[in-house]
Amino acid sequence: MRDRQGGRSSTMCASAGSTSFSSISPTPRRRRWPARALPRTATSTRRRVRDEIETLGELADRLASIEGNRHVVLLTSGFDTALLHGGGPAQTIGRGPLFGPNASMSRPARQSSTLGMSDPGALRAMKEMYAHFTRAGVFLDCIDIEGLRPSVSSSADSEGLSMLARDTGGQVVLNRNNLGEAMQTLADMQRVVYVLGFHVTDSGKRDNTIQVKLRGVDGVKVTYRPSYSSSIPTTSTTDGLRIADILENDIPQTGVTTSIVARGKTIDVEVPARELIALGRPANAEAEVMLYVYSGRSIVAFKDKRISIDAARADATKPVHVVETFDLPPGRYVAKVLLRVDGTEALGFARAPMNIE
Question: Is 253 helix (H, G, I), strand (E, B) or coil?
């Protein structure tokens, strides 16, 4: 997230488990200008930092519907927090040449803090990002990819990592030259996780604070999210992460009753017409039927079909069938169907073994 010569981007890893990182998703690309055409000012740098913070919040919303203990791992060299709050690091050691009239050794080792312009927009974006992670139940962890930092002043940028992760309940790994070891350290930190359940009275607030204390335990550090939310963000039925989670983990869906039968190379999907008409528009019901054939964990065949029902003429007592044939060699497969009703949040899912001899 830091803007240096040549530019530097951040990488996010989305994890659905406490000890493994299941996928890697780079920060969405925005329009990139040639280095000479883009002035490197504090304003442009603040804008980049703010954009990255907003992107993190959007990613948390997308992970809300995914089951499991979800973590976003941000790999970055950090950013100067003074760009947000305007205050420079209070205790820093200056960098520069060691000898000569302008050498840093000739100056006082400790420099006083500096005060610059703050960015209310970025601070507001940071607060909103915390809220997104709280409502989605997702943690943000940060790994400093700068490696071992040679001075306190260079460590100032790592303060941004702590600022990002702190209120999401996430953790930060600093001063590591080996990225693999840093990832393993983070996984080890999260090897033991407790889920706390509690009943609360309605506070009338969407976001609320929480404090966790341990009694009679010494030498133990507890990391937790300092807030909880009474609302959960909704994820679109077209979101790729949600669809992948349903298909890969066979997560049941209750939006619309869906069944599937495989006979040799032919797949027959059945859906009650009554449900589609009730969920659809007054005039007609439209739905998308996505058919997948798996061999192990790999998709070997896919077909996308449409269902259209004229509510005035259709017989609601009869089911709708979608029959498709797949040209596949002999083998043992698994057929899966994901059905999506247009204009609604309703999803249907079913799976069945598919044996071709």
Answer: coil
Q: What is the DSSP letter of 147?
A: -
The CA distance from 123 to 85, in Å, is 7
Residues 6+ apart with CB under 8 A from 33: none
pLDDT tens-digit readout, 331-347: 999 999 999 999 899 99
The structure's pTM equals: 0.66
Q: What burial letters (b/e) apply to 210-226, b meaning 16+ CB within 10 Å?
A: eeeeeeeeeeeeebebe
Q: What is the pLDDT of residues 11-30, one digit of tens each?
A: 556 555 433 333 334 444 44
Identity of the amino acid at 260: I
State the Cα–Cα distance between residues 354 and 294, nearest whole angstrom: 9
Q: Are 291 and 337 in contact (CB under 8 A)?
A: yes
Does an H or E element contain 52, and which? Answer: helix 42-63
Residues 6+ apart with CB under 8 A from 271: 256, 257, 258, 259, 287, 307, 319, 320, 322, 339, 348
Instruction: Kindly report the backbone phi and psi dihedral angles of residue 131, in degrees, each rounded to the nearest multiple of 5, phi listed first.
Output: -65, -40
Name the most confidently modeled range: 105-114, 240-249, 321-330: 321-330
For 259, other C-beta atoms within 10 Å of its C-beta total: 14
Q: What are the structural domains of the chain?
A: 11-189 (no CATH), 240-356 (2.60.40.10)
